[in-house]
Design brief:
Blueprint lengths: L6 E4 L8 H8 L13 E6 L9 E3 L2 E12 L2 H19 L5 H15 L4 E12 L4 E4 L4 H14 L6 E2 L6 H11 L6 E10 L5 E4 L7 H8 L3 E9 L3 E6 L4 E6 L1 H4 L9 H26 L9
Antiparallel strand pairs: 1-6, 1-7, 2-4, 3-4, 4-5, 5-6, 8-9, 8-10, 10-11, 11-12
Length: about 300
């Protein structure tokens, strides 16, 4: 269980919630699957097949939100609706108006939905109650918000908030690149995005960040909006100006610690989750320090 992207929300440290009560509330809105005419269904699923809705290892909780969606392209609906409209015009000798055409498209959607393929996806999230984190494994803000929205719908009074730091992420990253020096515990890698106030964007991929050209861009007013980094030679990632962490990669030295420790897949899953959550918790602590700490909540 290795997350690939981190969308970060803050929880109160030692959030006073009983795991049994939390699971009971999640159980009220589990994934039921799409019925014949439902285009979409959403609900909680067990992170491990046959397991509980909250997979708990050493007080670290893993949740999974399942989504089923019918694959029914608009072009298919439009084609069937057009064929039906043409048949009506030929049979009844009249033209189909816009309103009636919309009604025909809605009718064809309902008729075709039972035959549509169903796609299922899951979004995982990790709750670190002791350190006050809700971390969603998603590169998409929409899917992360979808997870949080369903959690709030399922559980009364979820106190999750977006992470705010003292120093602007863009300003901090720009300073690191301009000075050629990463904060303590980090190194700068070779992927970079710079953007001007006019939204002009320059991207570097697998490119040294030490050249004069990059400093000239910064002197001209461009700021860093994406930056590849490595933490303690253990985790590499790309950080953006919204504090989203993407392309998370746990380096070989870390994964080697899990090799040979598990007798079966369940044990391997738990070991991986324990290593992942422990390392990422430390990474997030160091990242907060690099930005001058967490901003106080507005009163």
């Amino acid at each position: 269980m290795w997350f690939k992207n981190l969308y970060l929300y803050r929880l109160p440290k030692q959030w006073a919630v009983d795991p049994a009560a939390l699971e009971e509330q999640l159980a009220r809105l589990t994934l039921q699957g799409c019925s014949a005419t439902d285009p979409r269904s959403i609900g909680w699923v067990a992170p491990r097949d046959g397991g509980a809705l909250i997979h708990s290892v050493n007080q670290q909780w893993l949740l999974s939100l399942g989504v089923e969606e019918k694959l029914l392209p608009a072009s298919i609906v439009k084609r069937f609706a057009s064929d039906k409209a043409k048949a009506i015009e030929e049979t009844e000798g009249r033209r189909i108006g816009r309103k009636e055409m919309r009604e025909i498209q809605e009718e064809m959607t309902l008729e075709l939905l039972p035959r549509a393929f169903v796609r299922r996806r899951s979004t995982f999230a990790w709750i670190d109650r002791g350190n006050g984190w809700l971390v969603v494994d998603s590169a998409s803000p929409a899917k992360a918000e979808e997870f949080l929205e369903h959690l709030r719908k399922s559980v009364d009074g979820v106190p999750a908030k977006s992470l705010k730091v003292i120093q602007s992420p863009s300003a901090a990253m720009t300073g690191w690149v301009a000075g050629g020096e990463a904060p303590t515990g980090f190194t700068l890698d070779q992927d970079l995005e710079l953007r001007s106030a006019e939204k002009a964007t320059v991207r570097y991929v697998k490119h040294s960040l030490e050249g004069e050209e990059i400093r000239q861009h910064i002197e001209a007013g461009k700021v860093v909006t994406r930056l590849a980094m490595t933490w303690n030679d253990r985790i590499s990632f790309v950080l953006d100006d919204n504090l989203q962490i993407k392309r998370l990669a746990f380096l070989d030295i870390l994964k080697e610690q899990a090799d040979g420790q598990a007798d079966n897949e369940d044990e391997r899953f738990d070991i991986d989750f324990t290593l992942m959550s422990g390392e990422v918790a430390q990474l997030l602590d160091d990242l907060l320090a690099a930005f001058g700490g967490e901003a106080a909540a507005a009163v």
